[in-house]
Write a structure and sequence with these properties.
homodimer, alpha+beta, 164 residues, 5 helices, Aminopeptidase, globular
Chain lengths: 164, 164
């Protein structure tokens, strides 16, 4: 992809509570793009509670062009028992379609990598749908597909039953 | 598997800093069992820093039989942007081979599920090697294999390069 980000006025920064409506709008934009809009149950109240509350389960970055938010990242720290260090987990990265092809995604990843190093993380991880063409891009960056691992998920109802 | 845990004196509790040598010993036991002992770089110092330090990247549970530690769990909270809630991520669960078949694994999972509910988690997740026979057991519990997702990992050196 061409990197034309030199020609645009890009700013990446950590999100604050004032960004909550923007984050929710961009989450919904992403979900429409992924044809998953019916699976979004997040809200301004939940974002406030879980990203900016007493216990912060995740953190957010905002990407702005000419001070207008056009992308976001949501991340948290995971942990590797064998490495003994935290890892940086990229939950979401989104750039509005009209701003793609400017290298903004790569700049967001670089910003994430710097945060990861500040926390002494030994790796960065994320999951990708197996048909997603971005896989090639990730592999060019040096990321490895951990094909031998399968993600298991115990959804809400089964979790409730297990907790009884 | 037969559940004979009624006949044993099982206690599950949250770990404290005094348990650090025990946790490290059990992590090494697990790594030998998985034939991955050369990949363990964790240490008492790193466990103290990351599990009991200023920022706790993960938490641990200890399973004891007759007050002797025979298993452990390491977990942390992840986050689902679409659900808007944290999730419970099971990084490690281990029971010493001589104590298996007593339903201790299931009791550990139940304990985890209760912690998950306290944190308003909407799901529990973990990864499994695709050849692991425990997959059937997990599916019987109601867990779903998220086959369409691939885990990507950017290892240490590539992360360093990205952060430059």
């Amino acid at each position: 992809m061409p990197n034309r980000s030199e020609g645009i006025n890009l700013n990446i920064r950590k999100a604050s509570p004032e960004d909550i409506p923007t984050i929710l709008r961009l989450i919904k934009e992403l979900s429409v793009f992924e044809k998953m809009e019916k699976e979004v149950f997040n809200s301004e109240e939940l974002l406030r509670e879980n990203l900016f509350g007493n216990k912060q389960y995740a953190e957010a970055l905002i990407a702005e062009v000419d001070r207008i938010p056009i992308g976001y990242v949501i991340y948290f720290f995971n942990y590797s028992t064998f490495l003994g260090h935290p890892g940086f987990y990229l939950e979401d990265m989104y750039v509005s379609p009209e701003y793609r092809g400017h290298g903004i995604g790569k700049k967001l990843l670089k910003y994430c990598a710097k945060i990861a190093k500040e926390h002494k993380c030994k790796r960065m991880e994320w999951i990708v749908l197996n048909w997603n063409p971005a896989r090639k891009f990730y592999e060019q960056l040096g990321a490895k597909a951990m094909d031998e691992w399968v993600l298991y998920r115990l959804p809400g109802e089964a979790l409730d039953k297990m907790a009884e």
